[in-house]
Amino acid sequence: MRVTFLGAAGAVTGSKYLLQLGARRVLVDCGLFQGVKRLRERNWQPLPFEPRSLDAVLLTHAHIDHSGYLPVLVREGYRGPVYCTEATRRLLALVLPDAARLQEEEAEFANRHGFSKHAPARPLYTEGDARAALELLHPVALPSDIAVCAGVGASYTRAGHLLGAASIRIEALGEGDSESILFSGDLGRTHDPLMRAPDPPPAADRVVIESTYGDRLHSNVDAETELAAPLERTLARGGVVVVPTFAIGRAQLLLHLIARLKARGAIPDAPVYLNSPMAEDATPLYQDYPHEHRLSAIELAAMSRVAHFVNSVEESKTLNTRGGPMIILSASGMATGGRVLHHLEAFAPDGRNLVLFTGFQAAGTRGAAMLGGADTIKVHGQWVPVRAEVMQLRGTSSHADYRELIGWLAGSPRAPQHVFVTHGEPAAADALRQHLRRELDVEVTVPEQGESFSWGRPAAGAPAR
Ligand SMILES: [Zn+2]
Known about the structure:
Elements: E1 2-5, E2 17-21, E3 24-28, H1 37-40, E4 56-58, H2 64-67, H3 70-75, E5 82-85, H4 86-113, H5 127-134, E6 137-140, E7 144-149, E8 152-158, E9 166-172, E10 179-183, E11 206-210, H6 223-236, E12 240-244, H7 250-263, E13 272-275, H8 277-282, H9 297-305, E14 308-309, H10 313-319, E15 326-330, H11 340-347, E16 354-357, H12 366-371, E17 376-379, E18 382-385, E19 389-392, H13 402-410, E20 418-422, H14 426-440, E21 443-445, E22 452-454
Parallel strand pairs: 3-4, 4-5, 5-6, 10-11, 11-20, 12-15, 12-16, 13-14, 13-15, 16-19, 20-21
Antiparallel strand pairs: 1-2, 1-22, 2-3, 7-8, 8-9, 9-10, 17-18
C-alpha cells in the first residue's frame, strides 16, 4: 500500500490522496485549491498521474475543497465510478455547476476588463465539464460497506461535518493479511446544534486526520445564546442585520437558531430574508436525511418557514431599499463575492446596522478586513464606509477542535500504527501532531505536498516521487 499526499498538505484546501493497493489505484477526494494565489495556481498544474489509470474516486463530502477538482479529472479522461454518499451526490448537483458558472463569469469579467495575463482568460472548467462529472457519481448509503474494485473494499461512516459527510476506511484484501487506511474527511463537532456527532472510527492500520483547528479549542458558549444579544439590540434599534453565510450547512444552522429565538420571543419578530438560491435549494435536503442531524420534523418545518426566500436579482436589489428592522442571510460567507456584496454596499455605512460573520475568515478577504476594523471596504470598484457594528460568532464552527479530534481517534477499537495529519495550516497541523503523540502514543507525521509513504509489498509500477 502506498499513499501520496497531493493536496491539503500544509494547507486546508485541495484535498487529494492517491492510494495504490497492489496494481489498483484509487483517489480519495478531488478538491480544489483555494485562497492565496500560490495555492490557486496549483489547480492549473498537470496531475502527477494519468486520470485514466485510476480504478475509482471516493469523495468524503461535497465542499469544493474536497470535490471541486472532479470536473477537471473527468475532462482529462477519467471515466470510472465516483463513490460518495447519497446526500453528497445531491449537494454536488448544486455545488459543481455553481462553481463552474462562477469561474466562467470571472474569466468573462477578466476578458471584458482586459486584466488577465492569459489572453483570453479561460475558466478552469465549464458548466458542461461539471455536468459530465455529475454523471459518474455512484451514491452509497451512510453508513455502508462497498466493493470499490477487485480486492479493494471501503466503509463509509458519518463524519458529522456536513450533510452527507463521511469518513472513509479503505481495505486492501490481499492473500495474507489485509491492510487498511482510514481518512477522517472533515470532522464535525461532538455537540453541534445542527449535525449529529461523528461516528466512532473503525479500526485501521493507518489514519489520515484533518487538523483545521488542531491548535484550538472552541468556546463553550452555546451558539443560540451567543446569537441572541446582537440580534436583539440591532433589531430593537431598527437596524438591519446582514449575515454573510456559507450557503450549505451554516445557512441552515442560522435559520434553525433564528427560528428558535423567535419562537421563544428572545428577539423582535422582524422579517428574515434568505438571499441565496443555493442555500434555498439545500434546505429541503435535511428532511431526507434525519439520521444525520438533530432536528425534529417540527424544527425542520420551523427552519424552512422562518425566512422569505429571495429568488430574482431584482428582489435582491429591492431589499436594499427596504428599511430595518430585518435580518438578511446571503452568500458568500467571507464576503468575497455573491449577492451579499450589494447588501454590504447598502447597509454597511449605517451605524444602526450589524454585519455578522459566522465562520473562519481567510486573510485577504473583506470579512477579515472588516473584522480587523477596516473603516472602508472596496465593493464593485467603489469605497464603501463601514459604520455598522461588525462581529463574528464563535460558536458556529463546523470543524472539531483538537480535543474533539483526539477524542474521535481515541474511540477507535485499536490504536493505528501510523497517523498522518493533514488539512491544516502548518501551525495547526504541528500542534495536533504533538497532542496526538503525547496523548495516544502513536507515530505521527505531517506529510508535505507530494510526499509518498508505502508499506508491505511494493506497489507495482508505482512512480517514485
Ligand atoms: Zn468541509
